[in-house]
Design goal:
This protein is mainly α. Helix content is 78%, strand content 0%.
Length: 365
């Protein structure tokens, strides 16, 4: 009776390799792939209950997002930076110095030529205090548009992007350490913050792709303006509507990816996982988060003007008394410092905004 028992056990053992080999056959992996894709689709639809081009009732898509007011949140970011002003001030100053060494300042010669031209042509067109204010405003607009920015070669452009990205990562690393209760040092942040730079660069590539509709809108407006099509009222309205819709598409896509720029700095986070997590966070909140990002851009623009405008007035007043100061790049240095501070401010604002969104862990409606 023992022999037949061993025979049954041997038959059972012989079936396992057969089943295993059957699962490993090439004809079985397409079924596993399809089932995996189906499972991922079901998980995605569960996380994203709303569908594009399908009307959803308001009661079904309201998702809580407890945020302070625009001014209150802006002041809270400012208080955080002021509390650690030596740390973040040193970071902004370091970024400005390194950028000046490897990238360069704005062109003092181009700025002086533009200033002299405005002074000569503005004697009849612009006069008095308002005239000086108008000239300074035109100089600021020229600075923002890059009229006297240096012509960067390929290497300098790489340096500029790399240092801006490293400053972003360093500021986020410092804020994460501060909110965790640590006392970080700038040296440690610079050495440690660059680990997710490749993942961050990949997310930035996705953001660039998502901004293609906006770039197309700018190209369309430039071409239409150069050909005189915008002189026609109806055609001008059509082109502006098309450009506005393209800009909205880019804003809609890029909102979650901007949040992903913060998520990807988490240890062990992959870029595609960060994009997926950011998409889950902004679902049902996209417009409110987008308005906060637009508010950030508006405040940076206003602060940039309010900080650079007095420097232009002072430089123009001193140059009239001491002509030798015309060769000193006072305004380009101020622009470099303000730009560095703007990068640090944007990093802190987006990180603290991300923390507020994460704290409200309500699921999609």
């Amino acid at each position: 009776m023992a022999a037949p028992a061993r025979t049954k056990q041997s038959k059972k053992r012989s079936k396992k390799p057969a089943n295993l080999s059957k699962r490993m056959q090439p004809s079985s992996w397409p079924r596993r792939t399809l089932s995996s894709l189906k499972r991922r689709k079901e998980e995605y639809l569960a996380r994203r209950p709303h569908r594009s081009f399908r009307l959803t009732n308001r009661r079904d898509y309201v998702r809580s997002l407890k945020l302070p007011g625009y001014w209150a949140f802006t002041f809270s970011v400012g208080r955080t930076l002021v509390k650690h002003r030596r740390l973040f001030g040193s970071l902004a100053l370091l970024y400005a110095i390194v950028g000046a060494i490897f990238v360069g300042f704005a062109s003092q010669e181009a700025y002086q030529q533009l200033s002299d031209t405005l002074s000569e042509s503005g004697k009849t067109l612009l006069s008095g205090g308002w005239g000086e204010l108008g000239k300074a405003g035109l100089l600021i607009i020229s600075g923002v548009s890059g009229s006297f920015a240096p012509q960067l070669n390929d290497v300098q452009q790489v340096y500029a992007g790399f240092f801006a990205l490293l400053t972003w990562l360093t500021a986020v690393w410092l804020l994460r350490a501060i909110l965790a209760g640590h006392v970080p040092r700038l040296r440690d942040a610079i050495y440690s913050a660059g680990s997710p730079i490749v993942a961050t660069a990949l997310v930035l590539m996705v953001v660039t792709i998502q901004l293609i509709p906006l770039f197309l809108a700018i190209i369309i407006l430039n071409v239409a303006g150069s050909t005189g099509i915008l002189d026609n009222g109806f055609l001008s309205m059509v082109f502006w509507i098309i450009s506005g819709l393209l800009g909205l598409v880019s804003a809609y896509w890029a909102t979650s990816s901007v949040v992903a720029l913060i998520i990807v700095t988490l240890p062990g986070m992959y870029p595609w996982q960060a994009l997926r997590t950011a998409g889950d966070l902004v679902i049902g909140r996209r417009v409110r988060i987008l308005l906060r990002i637009l508010w950030l851009l508006l405040t940076i623009s206003i602060a940039w003007i309010l900080l650079v405008l007095p420097v232009i007035f002072i430089e123009r007043g001193l140059s009239s008394w001491l002509p030798v100061l015309k060769n000193v790049p006072i305004v380009p240095i101020a622009i470099s410092l303000v730009t560095s501070a703007a990068v640090v401010w944007a990093s802190a604002y987006m990180f603290l905004l991300y923390r507020k969104v994460v704290e409200d862990d309500a699921g999609p409606a």
